[in-house]
Amino acid sequence: MTSQTTRRDFIKQSSAAALGFALFPGQKRNVAPSDRVRVAHIGLNGMGTNHLNWFANLPEVEVVGLCDLDETHLAKSLDTLRKITPNTTAKTYADFRHLLDRSDIDAITCATPDHWHAQIAIMAFQAGKDVYGEKPLSYSVREGQKMLKALNRYDRIFQLGTQIHAGDNYHRVVELIQSGAIGKVHTVRLWKTGFPPVLGPATYQTPPSTLNWDMWQGPAPVSLYTPERCHFTYRYFLDYSGGVFQDFWCHIADVVWWAINPTGLKRISAKGEAPEGIGDAPKWIDIDYEFDGLNLHWTSIPPNVPGAEKRGIGAYFEGDKGTLLCDYNTREITINGVVMNDITDIPITLERSPGHQQNFINSVKSRKQPESNLAYARQMTMPMHLGLISYRLGQPLEWNARKEKFRHNAAANALLFREYRKEWDLI
């Protein structure tokens, strides 16, 4: 992805790629109704539309429910489903709680704004349903803890929507790193370029009659309605998300946690700049993380390392024998000055994915956790939350990885969870 690529372009590109992962030539086959997984979708604009397309095209899936609190999104999604499955009997819902009451649904997908992810997933687990949830995993650290506890208590399956995880490139990067080809990795540099749009001035107004604005806000603080705070651009407000940083962290940090599983986080130090306009998620953010035996750096511009300037997003692993640079689809290994895109002597050791969505469906049937499972996703997501807390407080923070608390900083610990609005505290 180049620095000029927008998130809308990314969604179009990645959705097409992920659909390619999910559907192989000749895979569309007849499956007995008793062998189908009955799936319902919650949140049906943007990535939710992709969810619908992906799962509705899997032969082992029957889409039985659609839910969105915006009537226009709901009507559009039903039209989309009817084009794929003309005889669909899927029911539509404005309130996900009514959908979760159904005993005949096996799994749900969730593509709501970030601040709803955790409660919907936990309530789905409680209702006996498995979950394919969009990233980020949760709005806060404590929510991730609660999600994992509920998943284990109710013996559920969860897949985080890191669709790029299914691709061959990340599998091969992990094999190369874990083989020791570049030696012990001591430094990792991650980046994503691009600024948020300048939003505003705010045009506070009565919400559209087709939108349940109170429920859209849900557990978040109450705000007057303005279009900039809703739907796609909600991600640039800290009440709901964390900007460009939170939008892309999981996609590129994923390959790092998979390859080397950083542990023993000790220190987080973030700096950044507030944006112009009415949004308040950072315009840019740079973060230094200190783990046991590893320094990890996030920047909003490419780092000063060979090849990074050509990529709008990437990961650069520095080992004591060489380096590896990658993005979603490419990689470069440099050892003793020689640059290559693979080392053929290193064997293929990781089983390739059947497709990210198919992997979830297989897990629903086998009851074995999928690739981007909740326990893994929680560890990979947590540093993202901690970086934003350091940015919001404007200070470096010390972290106790065993207790999952900040050391001697009550203000920082208070930001590990945000109390829900009373009427929308559903768990």
TrEMBL record:
Q: Could you tell me which residue ranges the Gfo/Idh/MocA-like oxidoreductase N-terminal domain spans?
A: 37-161
**An example molecular function term from Gene Ontology annotations:** nucleotide binding
Instruction: Give the matching PROSITE patterns.
Output: TAT
Q: Tell me the ranges covered by the Gfo/Idh/MocA-like oxidoreductase bacterial type C-terminal domain, including all copies.
A: 204-425
Matching entries from InterPro entries are given as: Gfo/Idh/MocA-like_OxRdtase_N, Gfo/Idh/MocA_oxidrdct_glycsds, Gfo/Idh/MocA_OxRdtase_bact_C, NAD(P)-bd_dom_sf, TAT_signal, TAT_signal_bac_arc
Q: Which PANTHER family match?
A: BCDNA.GH03377 (PTHR43818), NADH-DEPENDENT DEHYDROGENASE-RELATED (PTHR43818:SF10)
Name of protein = Gfo/Idh/MocA family oxidoreductase
